[in-house]
Structure formats: structure tokens, C-alpha cells
Amino acid sequence: METNQCSNPVNSGFSAPSKVSRKTTPANTIVNVNGLLIGGSEIVVIAGPCAVESREQLFETARSVKTAGANMLRGGAFKPRSSPYSFQGLGEEGLKLLDQVRTETGLPIVTEVMDTRQVDLVASYTDILQVGSRNMQNFPLLKEAGMSGKPILLKRGMMSTIEEFLLAAEYILNQGNEQVILCERGIRTFETSTRNTLDLSAVPMLKRLTHLPVIVDPSHGTGLRWMVPPMAKAAIACGADGLIMEVHYNPETALCDGHQSLDLHEYNQLMTDLKKISLAIGREILSPLPSDIQS
Ligand code: PEP
Ligand code: MN
Q1: 149-172, pLDDT tens digit by residue?
Q2: What is the position in ligand 1's atom list of the atom closest to the CA of 76?
């Protein structure tokens, strides 16, 4: 496969590697998660806590985001933390809670896999495997996750170019797995007022270069709860196929990323606004599941 080494895709004539390229596959790839379609005309909203902390935290948050119209539930069981002394996640116990909350709510689950040795375990519980920003260039993990046959949510490396991002996705497609969702989650720049610089220009650029669906994470992209709603709205307005956002039933007590997590009221309000933005650009939020919660 030929790759162009130039780093500026606008001026260099950079073209995406072959399998992810829109030149090779002009039509949008639609990722099918238990019948929910990502990458079509409808916009998918994935919401939930940064980390699974307890049964109560997970179930209360999941029920509320479902009622407000989330399509899928996020929550980490294995957490990539900067400090080894920070909460590392509940591990398999967290995966079991995710499995149980899916049974109750019907919401498909997105959770992170950090290590090749965890792929089979995490894949046996989740609907989408998340490969996080810190692992975007963990090539053995990309291959192993690709081979799992599960849809993959691939987050952009915090210091990765769009070219590197697409090459990472190409590793997964090379395993025969085309069910890949790209996620812009902010990059490191000289700016310190936000946790990351949310590169929304990556959205139209990626949509032009690749047929894969593109979603945005305004929570890690900004690191600031109050900035999540405006950037979520901007992401939809500039063509993102969906959002993944951190929501917690009590952000002040969160063990991880509470400062960037919406509370339930804020999330509810944002969903109302997102519906209007979607309609304004000729799209719609994916229909929520029926709101009757069994249990
Ligand atoms: C996350 O989504 O929980 C996460 C750790 O995100 P990122 O890999 O983008 O930092
Ligand atoms: Mn987080």
C-alpha cells in the first residue's frame, strides 16, 4: 500500500490509506450495533459515566440518559489513568454491571479495552470496543481488537495527526473488520485553558477523506462541564455522525472526570437543544429506545 508521507492533507495531496479511503469506498460505511445504525443520516448519542463506579451510580445514570434520549451507554471498567494511584476501574466486576444494565435498559454498551490480553474478556461483555486516545497507536491492540469482530470506537490520539489516525483505523480494517467509528476527542496544543483543544475541523476533513462514521467527544475535548453543550452542538452542526459524552448522576462525587461530566439536568437540556440543531441541518437524533424500563 502506498502512503504519502506529507503531513498536511490540504496542501500535500495527502490521500487516506486505501481501505479507509473514500476514494476506494465512496459510500458511507454504516456501523450496525444491534440494529442501531451509526454513520447514516441519523445522529447517535452515547452517554454515561467516565467510569463504572457502583451499581447505583451506573443504573441511575443509565436510566436517566435513556429517558432523555441516549442511544447507547458508555462507561469504563478498565481505566487509563495518568496516575497509578487514581481509581483504575472495577475491571470485570464493572463489565458485569454493564452487562446487567444493558439487560435492564436495552442500551448497547461502549467500554474501553486497554490491553491485548483483555480483548476476549471485554468483547464478551460489550457491544462496541473502545480503543482510547492513549492506545491509538498500540498496533498489536488495534489488530487484536479488529479480530474480535466487534465494532470498534477508535479515539484520536491526543498527539496524532489525521493521517496517523486514519492509518490506525486502517490496521483494524486490515483485519477484515470495517465496523470502525472514528472519534475526535481533542488534541494537545499550547493552549492550557481547556484540557485539550477540540479539533472540530477534523470532522469535515475526516468526512471528506474517509467513508467511516465520525463522532465527537466534547467531554475529553474540553475538560469543562460548561463547555460541553456548546461544543456538542457545534460538532453536530459541522457534520459529526454522533457524540459520546460523560454524564454522571452526581458529578461532584465522581471518581473520575466529574469536572467534565454533565449532570442529569444539564444532559436533558442539551438533548432538547441537539434535536433542534439536528433538524436545522436536515438530520435527526436516532430514535430512542422505548422508554419503558423493565426490572
Ligand atoms: C474515555 O473515554 O474514558 C477516555 C479515557 O477517553 P480518551 O481515551 O479520549 O482520553
Ligand atoms: Mn473520562
Answers
A1: 999 999 999 999 999 999 999 999
A2: 3
Sorted by where each begins, the domain ranges of the chain are 31-285
156 lines ligand 1 (CB under 6 A): no
Helices 264-280 and 228-237 meet at what angle, rounded to 10? 20
pLDDT at 14: 76
Ion ligand 2 nearby residues (CB, 5 A): 50, 257
Name the nearest CA neighbour of 68 among 276, 268, 278: 268
pLDDT of 293? 45
- 74 sits in which H/E element: strand 72-74
Closest-CA residue, ligand 1 atom 10, reads 133
pLDDT at residue number 294: 44
Residue 133: partners with Cβ closer than 8 Å, 6 or more residues away? 155, 156, 157, 158, 185, 220
> For residue range 14-44, what is the model confidence (pLDDT) as tens digits?
788 899 999 999 999 999 999 999 999 999 9
Region 262-288 average pLDDT: 97
**Residue of minimum CA distance from atom 3 in ligand 1:** 50
Please, are residues 9 and 155 in contact by the beta-carbon 8 Å criterion?
A: no
Could you tell me which CATH class the domain 31-285 is placed in?
alpha beta
